[in-house]
Design brief:
Length: 122
Amino acid sequence: MRFLMMHRLDERAPEAWNPSPEFMEKMGAFIQDAAAKGYLITAEGVHPSEKGALVRKSRGARVKVTDGPFAEAKEVIGGFALINAKDLADAKAFAASYAELFDEVEVEVRQVVEFDDLPAPA
């Protein structure tokens, strides 16, 4: 099963967006280990929201684009990983070990919808 992990960081914390060499070393070792064990499909960090945009469409309305930063959001997506796991419990355990790398982080874990999960056409 594939799971998407998205980690959120405090947009207002400069240290969250400028990781130390020690953190980068720990993260690199974690990524190499996760890939070697077959968990990791891909993982990337993203820039703060000032270098992004929010594209929103409400029912019956036009598409609205808002450039970052997003003043209403304290925590924003700081990166993501796509992983292989046996089940949700396995994915949560992996996310917990990932979260241990950070001083402060929130990691959302969501199962990816596979083709076989979709209902058969009528």
